[in-house]
Every structure is written in C-alpha cells, then in structure tokens.
Amino acid sequence: WACAVLGARPAWTPRLPASVREPAAGQSTIVCHQRSAVPHGSN
C-alpha cells in the first residue's frame, strides 16, 4: 500500500510538488489515498 510506504519516500514521491512531497501528518493520509488510485510501479 502506498500509505504504508509514504514515509519511506516511494519512487513517485520526488515527482510530487515540494509541498505535497513533505505533507503534514494529517495530510499524508489524504495524499496517499489520492495517489493510490493512480497506477504506479512502486507498489
């Protein structure tokens, strides 16, 4: 799951804006759910 490895900086993380790359603790879950709906090979 993307959520589980969000803190580990998955492969797609560097492609996100800096503000999203290091989100607040509460926002990290939201970003994770949004990105998890997008197919990515890091899973």
TrEMBL record:
It comes from the Bacteria. This is Uncharacterized protein. The lineage of its organism: Bacteria, Bacillati, Chloroflexota, environmental samples.
